[in-house]
């Protein structure tokens, strides 16, 4: 038995995943690559509040904000600092790229502040929901964070100097904060690295590279309990995503054979494993995934996969020819198997090299595609008790801006499985749901994607490239069902009606469609028309496209392991979207009924604050030793100052 040691690193490691500065918090992340700005956070669902701790390498002011798009305008921000033994925190709203003005209503509560070892630390709390129009809610999915700091304190509360350092990033603040939580992995675990073997990345825009790999041989099987990317330094932008597909064939003779996934030179047995059942999934921006304590992804043993084909998407828009890559995935595992075997299921729109049925006109800001896994599939492919969804991975490309997954049972819309209204192509992470969702046999699953092509001059179609589009939802479930993938598309016949209308009305360039003698030639002609010959400048062309796009017919695939169809061909062909008689109430949530602090604002020119703006619970002296300050005393002093001023 040959071991490919260049692709395997087997050993014991410590997996302490929480920064020591964040004790008492559930989640932590550095917001910059230099690790000068640390964020810790935890959520309390009974009170619907979130508590933050920020620590920056400065003895000046520190800023933190929630942004609608990763830019400063429209951001809900706080700015805080420590000065003369007192902590200051101001709730602000950025209207432009200038110092944000202070909100009239202060809806953030300062819990502590300190300065020590050249760092300023602030702890504060706020409601998850907005308390007033200038507050941004913290929602499921991606949260866009903006941060900043200055090396000096403000000279007064009304005179805050501009930042010395700033940045933005995306985080899933609510992932793993509910009943579904990552296991505590502090301790020692075996790990195994699945790595590409010094790939000379082709000098083309998009490459999908397939690397066959062998998993550890464990007689009784094992469970993967965490996995994370291993990205070669300097290749963070090059490596877009990595999928490790289970391979049940014996590919031992081909472990030294790797190449473009679509190359004819790659052995057929290897190509057939690609695109099947994902064992591991990661995309750009993801930090790694730790599974809940009672769930594991099985491998090896009697029934688990022994091999994988690892697909790496290289995004090389500059078409550089000097990338040599050895990136991959690291999986942590245990031979003490957990209670449940888990599986990743794929839902959404069909994926192919030229998916012309996913046709997005240019210069449009809201294009929603609706994809279906019908109850006829889940009825046959799920166990009698259904499956429980505990995590999701939602995926589209650069035109995608929102993704959500609906759940329908007996024409009644149940709570959504997941939603991301702030999708960020550069931050695609796995979300641990607030609570599990049970999908029963016969349930319909719908995946929606909302695209924005307003800045594009040409048609966008579905496909593998970054500038093509996808609409996929990977659901992490247990127990393991027969189902692996359930993907749909608008029927090709509906597309040809639209294309023929385009030919007839002169807003599609001439092709050899009418002279085609077989389906292959017709599809080639339609593909060329879609990619190069459609003119969407007229309202007539857009109206005809809307009729095609609003089709309620869907073709779908309902497949199990190794791409096996789970339904007869005459059933696994075409179906209509479900008729929902009891839709879910999707009205936006109301403003929070109660907020955390009293209202108040700085008195212009005085450098002093009214009640509710200044609060300290913990401060430090110049030597870094902690001094406890009673918040009631500070509040009383603030009230006294406020009262005396009434007689000025």
Short précis:
By secondary structure, this protein is mainly beta. It is built from six helices and 39 strands. The relative contact order is 0.14.
Topology, please?
Blueprint: E1 11-14, E2 27-30, E3 37-44, E4 49-56, E5 62-67, E6 76-83, E7 86-93, E8 108-116, E9 119-127, E10 143-149, E11 165-171, E12 188-195, E13 199-200, E14 206-214, E15 222-230, E16 239-247, E17 259-260, H1 268-273, E18 278-283, E19 289-290, E20 295-299, E21 307-315, E22 324-325, E23 328-334, E24 340-341, E25 343-349, E26 355-360, E27 367-373, H2 375-381, E28 387-395, E29 400-409, E30 412-420, E31 431-439, E32 444-451, E33 460-462, E34 472-478, E35 485-489, H3 492-505, H4 519-532, H5 539-549, E36 553-559, E37 574-576, E38 618-620, E39 626-628, H6 631-645
Parallel strand pairs: 20-24, 25-35
Antiparallel strand pairs: 1-12, 2-3, 3-4, 4-9, 5-6, 5-10, 6-7, 8-9, 10-11, 12-23, 13-22, 14-17, 14-21, 15-19, 15-20, 15-23, 16-18, 16-21, 25-34, 26-33, 27-32, 28-31, 28-34, 29-30, 29-32, 35-36, 36-37, 38-39
Helix pairs in contact: 3-5
Mean pLDDT: 86
The profile of the biggest β sheet is: 7 strands, mixed
- Mass-distribution shape: globular
Strand portion:
35-45%
What is the gyration radius calculated from CA atoms?
27 Å
Distance between the termini: 89 Å
Fraction in helix: 10-25%
Unreliable segments of 5+ consecutive residues: 1-17, 598-648
Q: How many helices?
A: 6
Which structural class do you get from the secondary structure elements? mainly beta
Secondary structure tally: strands: 39
